[in-house]
Design a protein that fits this description.
This protein is an alpha/beta fold and about 270 residues long. It has two domains: about 100 residues, 3-Layer(aba) Sandwich (Udp-n-acetylmuramoylalanyl-d-glutamate--2,6- Diaminopimelate Ligase, Chain: A, domain 1), CATH 3.40.1390.30; about 120 residues, 3-Layer(aba) Sandwich (Udp-n-acetylmuramoylalanyl-d-glutamate--2,6- Diaminopimelate Ligase, Chain: A, domain 1), CATH 3.40.1390.30. It is built from ten helices and 13 strands. The protein has a six-stranded mixed β-sheet with strand order 7-8-10-11-12-9. Helix 1 crosses helix 10. The longest helix has 12 residues.
């Protein structure tokens, strides 16, 4: 058993809070740093199903990518979903921490895991968030290259097989071969113009709207929408592995578990 602060310190080494975007709400959101922790459940979202799973597994803490409290709360109404969820977490002594944009940006984080999953090499920065004096940069998303050029249809099929999805949506623009690829996990349609400016043959993200797709077509760039869930859920297992590694030399035992109940909220019929 360790203190919650020990988990937070390990999380800080993986995804430093200095990377958090100003509008974000990462860090310890429910509980105390002194909270004693024996089991940690790593998840993408803190849903009712995840909270139930944490209780079943007797987890003392949930580490999630998406914050359980994102927008400011004016009240905690236990007859509404977020209030009831917070009540349940407090009642059962389950602390909750989030690593959101810091895990998106961090090296080895959400976007690097996505790049690796879909076969990108020579990976570099995409949307710069910080540039250091030594020339190194931090960024949302990544830009990389495929080992060999592919047809957009084949690339889409590769992504569908690599990610936890049953389908992807594709915006095809002519017969342009795909070699250079920009990616942004989760919801990155706002960066379509940036991807096109950098010369990407295809852009992979989630939550693409109709007019976003039209814009990509005007730029002559393919887009593959693999969904918010699909582009981010692969981080869950990798984050669990990294937390376990970071805690190997810590005094006290703690078990790191992976969310095994979540699935995409969208299906195709």
């Amino acid at each position: 058993m360790v203190m919650c602060k020990t988990i937070l310190d390990a999380l800080e080494r993986i995804a430093p809070k200095r990377l958090v975007e100003e509008w974000d709400n990462s860090g310890l959101l429910i509980g105390s740093p002194a909270h004693r922790t024996e089991r940690v459940l790593v998840a993408l979202d803190v849903t009712d199903a995840v909270v139930t799973r944490a209780m079943e597994k007797k987890a003392d803490m949930i580490v999630a990518h998406h914050p359980v409290i994102f927008k400011p709360l004016k009240h905690i109404r236990t007859d509404l979903s977020i209030g009831a969820r917070i009540q349940t977490l407090l009642k059962h002594g389950i602390a909750v921490a989030a690593a959101h944009t810091n895990l998106d940006i961090a090296r080895g984080g959400v976007n690097d895991v996505l790049a690796e999953a879909i076969g990108l090499e020579q990976v570099s920065s995409f949307v710069l968030t910080e540039q250091h004096k030594d020339g190194t940069t931090e960024s949302l998303g990544r830009v990389g290259a495929l080992l060999a050029p592919m047809r957009i249809e084949d690339f889409a099929e590769t992504i569908k097989e690599a990610l936890p999805v049953t389908y992807v949506r594709m915006v095809k623009v002519g017969e342009r071969t795909v070699r250079k690829v920009a990616i942004c996990s989760g919801s990155g349609a706002e960066f379509i113009g940036k991807a096109a400016f950098l010369g990407a043959d295809a852009y992979v993200t989630g939550d693409v709207r109709y007019h976003d797709a039209q814009q990509a077509m005007e730029f002559g760039m393919h887009v593959i929408d693999a969904g918010h869930f699909g582009t981010e859920f692969p981080i869950v297992r990798r984050l669990a592995e990294r937390l376990q590694h970071e805690l190997e030399t810590v005094k006290g035992e703690v078990e790191i578990l992976c969310d095994d109940v979540s699935h995409d909220v969208f299906t195709v019929v």
